Amino acid sequence: MKLLKDILYNVNLTSVSGNMNLDITDVCFDSRAVKEGSLFVAVKGTQVDGHDYIDKAIKSGAVAIVCEEMPLLPDMSVTFVATANTHTALGVIAANFYDNPSRKLKLVGVTGTNGKTTTVTLLYSLFRSLGYSVGLLSTVENKINDRVIKASHTTPDQVSLNRLLSEMVEEKCQVAFMEVSSHAIDQGRIAGLEFTGAVFMNISHDHLDYHKTFDNYIQTKKKLFDNLPSSAFALVNLDDKRGQVMLQNTKATQYAFGLKFMTDYKAKVITNSYQGLELDINGQSVWFRLIGKFNAYNLLAAFAVADILQEEPSEVLMMLSGIETAPGRFEAVNANSEVMAIVDYAHTPDALENVLQTIDSFRSGNEKVITVVGCGGDRDKDKRPVMASIAAKWSDKVIFTDDNPRTENPDKIIKDMMGGVGPSMVRKALVIRDRKEAIKTACSMADSQDIILVAGKGHETYQEINGVRHDFDDRAVLKEMLELFKD
Ligand SMILES: CC(=O)N[C@H]1[C@@H](OP(=O)(O)OP(=O)(O)OC[C@H]2O[C@@H](n3ccc(=O)[nH]c3=O)[C@H](O)[C@@H]2O)O[C@H](CO)[C@@H](O)[C@@H]1O[C@H](C)C(=O)N[C@@H](C)C(=O)N[C@H](CCC(=O)O)C(=O)O
Ligand SMILES: Nc1ncnc2c1ncn2[C@@H]1O[C@H](COP(=O)(O)OP(=O)(O)OP(=O)(O)O)[C@@H](O)[C@H]1O
Ligand SMILES: N[C@H](CCC[C@H](N)C(=O)O)C(=O)O
Ligand SMILES: [Mg+2]
After folding, report:
1. Is 466 exposed, middle or buried (0-12, 13-18, 19+ CB in 10 A)?
2. What is the CA(176)–ligand 2 centre distance, in A?
3. Which residue in 232, 403, 412, 477 has its CB near the most CB atoms, within 10 A?
4. Pick from 173, 217, 215, 220: which is nearest to 196 by CA?
């Protein structure tokens, strides 16, 4: 329980009507979750306007309302406050309600189109092995030390996020690593948080359905760095030309990493094989279990964060070298088969190309590469033909299939993908919408030494169709089908 006036500390109010000394039992942005004594924050969403649910929230017991537009006839029995942007206000309010937990631990945010989950998961495992109590907020799962809390988003909403951070503080976490998605930045989910540091991995084609232009997408990511305090660090990948852009207006102490230029943290790939990566990091040569050159960036970023946080470099490298890949990221599925089978979460053109190029670099000549891939519904449509073209280019056979069609017609999604497959590639392509059948067909086609890549769903354990999540796990299905066709 907290006083309304304390919860609104640091929120820019444009008008107030009613008592500010009210006891508030909970902060809600969904009228369906409001209880007696709640504060309801009306947010304009992508589907509906939360302002339309103010009356419903009051009927359910809300005693105070935060809104952008005051109603013409406000209910005099409750307190109304107006502010210019309720998305960001909700972040500050949630942080105040939970006593600003981000100030009580070292919070590091990682942004980028690809590599966020891998990097925060590496950091979580690294700091656990260095003996710390650690929090993790990721696409795959949230964690407080060894306790797993299901994740519904890459970056949780303002209230869940601050609640999770406050639980981390209660459980004595000294550090927390979180993914910061561009949706989260745009929707104020990280407003009110105090970061110890932020990391930029890369930016490439994704989410244009939401951000509309690539420049908007870049500018949204940049806000994470623009809003860092001078006490924080900003660490960017300089091999991505937008790394420099992220640093343009930050007050934070700047650091860079990369493989191409002389930077604060530089790595060189010595060996890249199915056994792992051998990297030279700042002059020290180390083997890692992760596969593919793209993972050199994730490993280097994790090393740099630990170094900036003043961990001992050689101990950090030793611990990092033993850490496994994150679930569903270049995960080998072993079914005692002669076929090499990999599940990977590549769901962007850049990720798919990286993974297929990595596979290509391991080929000795005669083996076939068979790729099973789809594109999500209700997401960026422009990436579909590009992903399909990349899949066809780097594979001997490609099977286009369903991947979370959500509310879209799956045939239309596949048609969009096929738009990227030119006449010279079309002979390589098959369409099998049922994902299980698609994986089965890939396994039936594969001979000894061939390579199967099942891309797009990684760790996901469902296929989402019209709001219903049906059980589906690429890794389990692949294993079952490899067994079926084992010689
Ligand atoms: C497109 C998008 O990001 N939507 C997010 C957004 O919902 P929205 O703006 O559509 O909300 P809305 O349905 O229009 O409702 C507006 C407001 O009215 C309220 N409302 C609504 C109905 C009602 O009866 N009463 C009521 O009060 C809602 O609670 C909300 O506050 O705000 C919600 C609350 O925070 C999120 O759950 C929701 O995530 C949806 C489910 C989602 O799928 N988001 C994905 C795209 C996403 O965020 N992905 C990124 C990762 C992407 C990546 O990097 O690959 C992530 O961070 O997870
Ligand atoms: N540093 C990287 N650069 C480019 N591609 C990468 C990198 N790291 C991972 N990938 C590819 O991107 C896929 C997704 O990786 P990861 O889950 O770590 O990214 P993410 O940024 O968390 O994605 P999301 O936006 O869905 O949360 C991997 O399965 C791999 O194919
Ligand atoms: N975090 C990503 C996940 C994409 C994974 C893919 N399986 C899909 O459903 O499109 C997104 O929300 O865009
Ligand atoms: Mg992620």
Report:
1. exposed
2. 20
3. 403
4. 173
Chain-centroid distance, C-alpha 422: 32
Has residue 336 got a pLDDT over 80? Answer: no
Considering the four listed CATH numbers 3.20.20.360, 3.40.630.10, 3.40.1390.10, 3.40.640.10, the one that applies to the domain covering 2-97 is: 3.40.1390.10
At 387, which helix (H) or strand (E)? helix 383-394
For the record, the structure tokens of 179 come out as 């993914």
Q: Which two tokens stand for residue 15?
A: 């008008």
ipTM tops 0.95: yes
Judge residue 61's burial from the number of C-beta atoms within 10 Å of its C-beta, 0-12 exposed, 13-18 middle, 19 or more buried: middle
Indicate which residue's Cα is closest to atom 41 of ligand 1: 153
Dihedral sign (CA 135, 139, 140, 141): positive
Find the 45 Cα to ligand 1 centroid distance in Å.
Answer: 7
CA proximity to 267, closest of 253, 246, 288: 288
Instruction: Pick the ligand that lies closest to the CA of residue 405.
Output: 3
Predicted confidence (pLDDT) per residue in 30-75, tens digit: 999 999 999 999 999 999 999 999 999 999 999 999 999 999 888 9
Q: How many CB atoms lie within 10 A of CB 398?
A: 28
The label of the residue with tokens 């949630």 reads 94
With a 6 Å cutoff on the Cβ, whether 318 touches ligand 1 is no
- Grouping H, G, I as helix, E, B as strand and the rest as coil, residue 169 is helix
In 23-90, where do the E strands start and end?
23-24, 26-28, 38-41, 64-67, 79-83
Which of 333, 275, 361 is CA-nearest to residue 457? 333
pTM: 0.96
Q: Is 54 in the pocket of ligand 1 (CB under 6 A)?
A: no
Helix (H, G, I), strand (E, B) or coil at 160: helix
Residue 137's pLDDT is: 98
Per residue in 367-394, pLDDT tens? 999 999 999 999 999 999 999 999 999 9
Q: Is the pLDDT of residue 236 over 90?
A: yes
